[in-house]
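Collaboration report, partner site 2.

Our partner group contributed sequences for two proteins of shared interest, and the home lab folded both. The records are reproduced in the order in which they were received, starting with the first partner submission.
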Amino acid sequence: MKVTINDVAKLAGVSMKTVSRVINKEPSVRKKTYDLVMEAVKELNYQPNIAARNLAGTSSFAVALVYDNPNAYYVIDMQNGVLSRCKDEGFELVIHPCSSTDDQMQDEFKTMIQRSRLAGLVLTPPLSEQQNIIKMLDEMNMPYVRLLSGREEQNEGKSNCILVNDFAAAYEITEHLIKHGHKNIAFVLGDKEHKSTTERLAGYQQALTDNNISFNQSLIFEGHYSFESGVNGAKHLLANNNKLGVTAILGGNDEVAAGALFAARLMNIEIPAQLSISGFEDSPFSRQTWPKLTTAHQANNVISEHAARLLFSKARSSRKQEKDIITNFTPSIVVRESTGPAPV
């Protein structure tokens, strides 16, 4: 005969409601009661009917990772980080890709939330930066945590989020190149819809300013976070026998930098003797090129795991938190063989 929640309640000497609270891991349950119920669950080998409970509306056992990013390595890292926390919490992970530029995206997003009966969401850029999405989630009373590109001093007006300091990382990489004698440092940007693009550009510009190097718009190529964009950007910047005198290229991410490296090889430019190239994020791309790329290490799996931890804490809170929680991460530079002294 199938064991029921009533059997567990009788053996533990508590109500069925208490058993449900224990199984749902509600924080208000006393440890003694929790232990009694879990002993009964183990003794009877009770298996909760999660699907039935979800349909009944008593609880949800899924969270979603929502993204709009073509970088497979980025998505996998984010997925693994959230998934590791979901496993510890006994939750399932829903992966939902969508296009931030799609006119129907908001309606599609809302339908997904209702259909999946989610306990909460982890939002990645650029979706996490869209106020219409945040407003909708607030109106639905849906717990969420946002991953954002930003600085600690820019915290004002932000809800629960993880801030990644792309400005500081881009500043550090640019200064690394400057210290090696580079002045004509080009930048192949990522997608303009991502705040990380503007933050990385701002960090680059500030490093130039602090080192008395004039900003040159001709050294900026507006692209996308893709290998092809790196190829096209490098070909443009190095055209006409390097008329612009570029000695270093900063890629918006590692894919872009790998594309720039590929283009330089096609043009018989030696790396780093004639041209230094650096990336961003320390993805597998940075270690699969030759030479390996100097980059900024961004632990996306750690960041997303922390976001999921914060989400579960927020979702279980029986009252609105008095203060939004904001955590700051700053990527660190990793120097490899793709950068060196500026050519004389």
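Second partner submission, folded after the first:
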Amino acid sequence: MTDIYPSRQAATPQLLPRLDPVVHSEWTADAPITREQAAGFDRDGYLVLDDIFSDAEVAHLQAAAGKLLADPAALAPETIIAEPQSKEVRSIFELHRQSDVMARLAADARLAEVARFLLGDEVYLHQSRLNYKPGFKGKEFYWHSDFETWHVEDGMPRMRALSMSILLAENNANNGPLMVIPGSHRSFLACVGETPENHYLSSLKKQEYGVPDEDSLAEMAFEKGIVAPTGKPGTVIIFDCNLMHGSNGNITPFPRSNAFFVYNAVSNRLQAPFGARKPRPYFLAYRGEPEALTARHGPLTQQELAA
């Protein structure tokens, strides 16, 4: 297959046109989001959904996340990523396979049907994780496009994927929230530097390859601005696979955490990596036959899960 988004191949960075739609469905009155929300996602590359979960559902999710963080020995060790120079948990991958509560959340119709609409296809989980940024010590994560990594290292062919971050703690302007450059998803920034062997072992703590150059970043930021979507627990932040984003460190005493799901179109299944010798491991990128998510309706409660 021709690589229409080549990266980590040239000696200088390049800004390439996006050749894929952002919203892959025509809006109709029965869509799971409003016309304005669909237009905003198309324009800005992200969307914030407020108050879609009840207080009881949020508490249920927080309890499930707390259980995972409290007993990492019960998890697959390769799925746990620690903070740089620390043993504090930064991320737990394969979230939906290690927590029934989180698997139910990923399939919830309030999320899955939005993903299906925006991607114009049945969807499956490319990746899932619990992100945790502890107070005082939570490290920054540098600017990047997820698609650049998923394309180069995982073999995702087209821009037909998105991420959903479900906030499990308050994310405010002070505790290292997600930052995005609105509209940056409209171009693909090809990066420099050949992908090292087993790059994921270091990149999940601090990414040094596949990161944008400062001149291109500055041009994007000055032209489009930087926004930090914030919200209370239960808020959902959806962003396009190619949106430039990152986060500052957290030197406040207030930790933040979120459940994070990457939905990919079934028709966009992974191929051989476009710029790495071998693909990343299973817990970072699902490579099997995609199984479309079945949307689940009803409340996220323990009683519903047990029924």
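Feedback sent to the partner group on the second submission included the following. The longest helix spans residues 55-70. Residues 174 and 252 are 7 Å apart (CA to CA).
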